[in-house]
Amino acid sequence: MQEHTSSDLDYKATSSLALNGGTIKDAALNAATLTLASPGDPNSLGDNKALIVDTTVPTVTGVTSTTSNRSYKQGQTIAITIGFSEVVNVTGTPQLTLETGGSDAVVNYSSGTGSNTLTFNYTIGAGAYFF
């Protein structure tokens, strides 16, 4: 599969429409003129629509927390944020596994879809204390 990226999708040239063995005719069987408007000109695809083809994969740019540095105990929440290189949209429930000592904690995605930062809220369970 070939990758394509375009900031504003348009066809290549005025001759980009080809019959490829087919026909385009009106009801009186007159063959259609296939000349397209110049790319970017009025009536071209690029002029009429802003279609963006994005094949760049978002990547993690950093992991941090918006929660203050201090001690936390059972029942308190620590917000973990993951930054991405571009805006991301979330479906389902992504999870983040945290190393918490005795057993790992799996934290569900909380918020951030439509932005470049996702938040996972970790509510501290019984017997856990963080400094």
The gyration radius over C-alpha positions equals 26 Å
Number of helices: 1
The class by helix and strand makeup works out as: mainly beta
Q: Quote the average pLDDT.
A: 92
Q: Share of helix among residues? A: under 10%
E-strand count: 5
Beta-strand percent range: 25-35%
List keywords for this structure.
131 residues, mainly beta, 5-stranded antiparallel beta sheet, 1 helix, 5 strands, 3% helix
Characterise the protein shown here.
- This protein has 131 residues and is mainly β.
- It folds into 2 domains: 55 residues, no CATH class; 64 residues, no CATH class.
- Helix content is 3%, strand content 29%.
- A 5-stranded antiparallel beta sheet has the order 1-2-5-4-3, with no helix packed on it.
- A hairpin with a 6-residue loop joins strand 3 and strand 4.
- It is rod-shaped and about 80 Å long.
Can you describe this structure in just a few lines?
This protein has 131 residues and is mostly beta strands.
What is the secondary structure topology, with strand pairs?
Elements: H1 45-48, E1 60-65, E2 77-88, E3 95-98, E4 105-111, E5 115-123
Antiparallel strand pairs: 1-2, 2-5, 3-4, 4-5
